[in-house]
Amino acid sequence: xxxxxxxxxxxKVALVEDDAAFQQAFSTxxxxxxxLAMVGVAATAAEARAMLAQPPCDxxxxxxxxxxxxxxxxxxxxxxxxxxxxxxxxxxxADERHVIASIEAGASGYLLKDSPLPxxxxxxxxxxxxxxxxxxxxxxxxxxxxxPDEKPAEEGAADADTVEKSGVPSLSEREKETLQLIxxxxxxxxxxxxxxxxxxxxxxxxxxxxxxxxxxxKTEAVFEARAYGLL
Length: 231
Hints:
The protein has a five-stranded parallel β-sheet with strand order 2-1-3-6-7, sandwiched between helices. The relative contact order is 0.10. The chain is built from eleven helices and seven strands. The N and C termini lie far apart (48 Å). It is an alpha/beta fold. Helix 4 (71-81) packs parallel to helix 5 and helix 9 packs across helix 10 (199-213). Strand 4 and strand 5 form a beta hairpin. It is elongated.
């Protein structure tokens, strides 16, 4: 890093991330960079919106899987309220839908959390300088979008029983009821009692929900369902 960069006013960086370990690792990485200053952290969408009511930052890094909403919405709001702020995604979601939605909302960079955090300071500098830091896997996703004849096999035709023509997963009424109860924080045992079925039946509903939404956890299921407008 040049002396000019070190002596200049540090770039103001804010983070929207609910994972405490990632927050700490991110803060540690920025602490070693004199030209970057961590000025705000939000762990929820609500906290992020409160932060957006404050003076703008130079760079905003956003996770997409927030406990109370979608990071894509936060990106869109930040793009409107902080028009001069460069926005970058840092997430575990590597599918095309999230990538394209984030870019359309206003993100200029997209990093997966399997990328080495020690490079985050340089990624932020590149982003603020007008570049677009992007993980190799994501770059391939974007490129493949413009090569429909070479799209990955998993993007092929979906099962008609799983996905409606609109692309929105089709859940049965019982699956929707199960998902709504999951969203309200009930355990599988409590859901079984409320629905008047066995725990094994609830687990069957959950497996179907996970398969249709292509997720592996309750948190991801709620996030995806909200993204599709199912909740």
